[in-house]
């Protein structure tokens, strides 16, 4: 019984890790967002940030979150002080979340760790704002 439970946990984690296609370069993510007409989500972290790791290991592995991100967003994870990205994406605090239109206009930006329910509500708000922006063009 314990072996089955361990297998299910490992399989679930491995499946979740592969669910999102994270870009690792800002410019590649931007080009993909333009091509696919999707929202660009830049997730800025640092290697020593406890809350970044918690966000990656909990919220970002939740199936409902990964499905929403895959559907409506191009996602890129950037390491503060290491990766190249526009200076307009200032990340004095990490984790930092930037949601941009494909032409790099900010829809919403915020910092911190967010649990699944709260992060999902942000995603809903961002998608609605983006639809309004697209409707006004």
Task: Give an overview of the whole structure.
There is one protein chain. By secondary structure, the chain is an alpha+beta fold. The chain is 47% helix and 18% strand. The chain is built from five helices and four strands, in the order ααβααβββα. It has helices at 2-17, 26-36, 50-57, 63-72, 116-135; strands at residues 39-45, 73-79, 96-100, 106-111. The chain has a four-stranded mixed beta sheet with strand order 2-1-3-4, sandwiched between helices. The longest helix has 20 residues, at 116-135. The termini are far apart.
User: Which runs of at least 5 residues are low in confidence (pLDDT < 50)?
Assistant: none
N-to-C series of helices and strands: HHEHHEEEH
Which architecture does the CATH hierarchy give at level 2?
Answer: 3-Layer(aba) Sandwich
- Helical stretch count? 5
Tell me the radius of gyration. 16 Å
Strand order of the largest sheet: 2-1-3-4
The general outline is globular
Largest sheet: 4 strands, mixed
* Overall mean pLDDT: 89
